[in-house]
Fold:
Amino acid sequence: MVTQRNFYFGQPLGKYRAYPDLPIEGEQIIGASPISRFANTIRKALDPRKPGWVRVLNTLTGIKITTVDEERELGRLLTDYFTERAKSDKNLRSFTNFYQKGKVDPQLEALLKRWRETKG
Structure:
């Protein structure tokens, strides 16, 4: 896969859990038992992230309809690219800029003011 990401879970390939609410042992028991087929069908039918007609189509026919957020995927690809470059290129450095939208907490504003004064 080009993006090396699982679009269903929105995480890197191979780093997801089908039943995140269960302890890992419970997930392993369900996965190894015949009930896993029934559990997967129920999970598909009750997926809250998809509209009803998509869930019905997926449950009854197995056809999957997925919407890809291109802007988010492009951001992930750029992040992955620069992460790999930072690991391999000794001349590349990292810069992180945090900002807050809306009203700033007075305590944070005072700390930032002190920090700016010390930086010159």
